[in-house]
Amino acid sequence: MRPDSVRRWCFADQLGPHFLDVEDQPVLLIESRAVFGRRRFHRRKAHLVLSALRHRAAELGAQAQFVQARTYREALSHVVGRISVCQPTSWQADRFVRTMPAVDVVPARGFATDRATFETWAQSQRRLQLEHFYRDARRRFDLLMDGTEPTGSRWNFDAENRQPPPKSGRLGLREPWLPDEDEIDEQVRADLDQWEKDGDASFVGRDGPREFAVTRAEALAALDHFVQHRLSDFGPFEDAMLTADRWMAHSALSAPMNLGLLDPLECAYAAEDAYRAGNAPLSSVEGYIRQLIGWRDYIWHTYWHFGPDYRHRNMLAAHHSLPQWFAELDADAVEARCLRSVLEQVRDHGYVHHIPRLMVLSNYALQRGWHPAAVTDWFHRSFVDGYDWVMVGNVVGMSQHADGGLIATKPYASGGAYIDRMSDYCGGCRYRPGHRAGADACPFTSGYWAFLARNRDRLAGNHRMRQPLAGLDRLADLGDVIAAQQRLGDTPP
Ligand SMILES: Cc1cc2nc3c(=O)[nH]c(=O)nc-3n(C[C@H](O)[C@H](O)[C@H](O)COP(=O)(O)OP(=O)(O)OC[C@H]3O[C@@H](n4cnc5c(N)ncnc54)[C@H](O)[C@@H]3O)c2cc1C
Ligand code: SF4
Predict the structure, then answer these.
(1) Which residue intervals of 318-371 are DSSP H helices?
(2) Whether residue 435 is found in the same domain as residue 457
(3) Model confidence over 194-214: pLDDT tens digits?
(4) Closest ligand 2 atom to the C-alpha of 425?
(5) Residue 355 lies in a domain
(6) Final residue of a domain: which of 85, 106, 127?
(7) Does residue 423 fall inside a structural domain?
(8) Which of 26, 104, 170, 369 would disulfide-bridge 84, Cβ 3.0–4.6 Å?
C-alpha cells in the first residue's frame, strides 16, 4: 500500500491541504462533542471550530470519513484499517494518538521551521533568544534577504514601528475581510444552542455573526485582503490601542492559521512580494514576517522544547484564583476604561490584538498574582485562536514571567503611563494614570508598584529589574499604595 493512500486523520486544527500528502488522500475527520463539555469555551470559538470542521467535511465529500461521536476513542472504533496523523498540537493529544495501535504519527505541519531544525539550532545556543532564531529563519527561508545581508541592511525596524495611536482616535483603514455565513453555520448555531440546553456544553462570551475564515478559500481571501489593504500600516501602529478600532492594522489571521487553513510561510512570502512590488514599506513587512516565522514558530517550538512540565512553572509564586467577574468576562462590572473596553471585546468577539492581551489583560493578572495555570486556561478558552501550544509560552513565559525568564528577560509589568501613551483609554477614565494612591489611583499604576514590592526578593537577581526596584525604595507612600491594592482585592476596578 502506498503511504499516501493511508487514511489521514486531520484534527480540527489541521484542515488545510498541506496536511495531506496528495490531494486525493482519504481523510478522517472527527467531531467530538465531549471536547466542549470539558471546558467552558467562548461561544464564538466553539462555533468557529465546528464550522471549520464541517465545512472541510462537506468540501471533501466522499473522500472523507466524517465521524460525529461523543469522544475520539468512540469515533476511532468506527474506523477500519491503519490511519496516519500529523503530530497533534498539544502534549495531551500527542500522548493519546501514540497510544492508539492503528495510528502512525508523522511529523507536525503548519509551522515554518520543523522540529528537528529547531532542536539543532537550540543545541548550539546558550540562551534561546527569539532574535537569533528569527535571523536564522530569515536566512534559511531566504525571506527579506539580499544575498547574505538582510534587505535594507537591518534585521529590525522597531524604531519605526510601535508608535502611539493617531490623535484622531481611528486609523481609518478598511475593515478586515469578513465572511458571509451559510447553512452550515446555521446548523452549527442550532446544535450549540441544543447542546447547551441539554447540559452537554456550556459557553462564555456572546454569540454573533462569524468573523473569521473557516475554509481555505475564505482564508486566502482574508490573506489577500490584508496584504492589499492593511499590511502597509501594520508596523507603525503595531503596539497601539484605540477604543473605537479593535483591529488597528493587525491581520486578524491567527484564527484561520491556527485551524491549519493558512501556512505561515505562504503568508510571509505574500508579504515579501507586496514589499518587492512597492506596495508596502519594509518596516511593516519586516514586522509582520517577524511575528510569523519568528514569534509564532518560537512559541510552538519552545512548547515542546521545555517539556510538558513547563506549563506548571510558577516562579513568582502566584496563587490567587481568577475572580468571578474576570472569569465570566463581565465587562459591565468594570470601571477602569482600558480593562472594561478590552474585556468587552473579548466577551463580544473572542479576539483582541497582541497588546491588549499582553499589556492590559495579562498585566492585570500578573500584578494581582493570579495563578499562571488559571490564566493560561482562561486565555485558551476565551479566544477564538486559543490552543494549548500557543497559550503556554505566551502566558506562562511571556506574560506571567512564571518560567523565571526563559522566554522574556523581564516581566511585562507596567503602570498606567504605558497604557496612556499607547492608547486613548485614559482620557475618559475615572482613574488617573499618574496616580498610585488615593481615590483616583490608577489600578495599573498602584498594581505595578505593589507587584514590585511583593516580588522584590524574587526579582533582585535580574539586572534588568535593578532600576525599577531602586524606584521602589524612593516611594515615600508605598504603604498607602499597597493598602489601596489590598482594599481593591478581587473586586472589579
Ligand atoms: C497573553 C497572550 C495570549 C495569546 N494568545 C494567543 C492565542 O491564543 N493564539 C494565538 O494565535 N496567538 C496568541 N497570542 C499571540 C498574539 O497576541 C496573537 O497571535 C495575535 O494577537 C493574533 O492576532 P492577529 O492575527 O491580528 O496578529 P498579527 O498582529 O497580525 O500578527 C501576525 C501573526 O503572527 C502570529 N503571532 C504573533 N505573535 C505571536 C505570538 N506571540 N505567539 C504566536 N503567534 C504569534 C499570529 O499567527 C498572527 O496572526 C497571545 C499573546 C499573548 C501575550
Ligand atoms: S487611568 Fe488607568 S485604569 Fe484608567 S484607562 Fe488609564 S490605565 Fe486604564
Answers:
(1) 324-327, 337-349, 354-355, 363-368
(2) yes
(3) 999 999 999 999 999 999 999
(4) 5
(5) yes
(6) 106
(7) yes
(8) 104
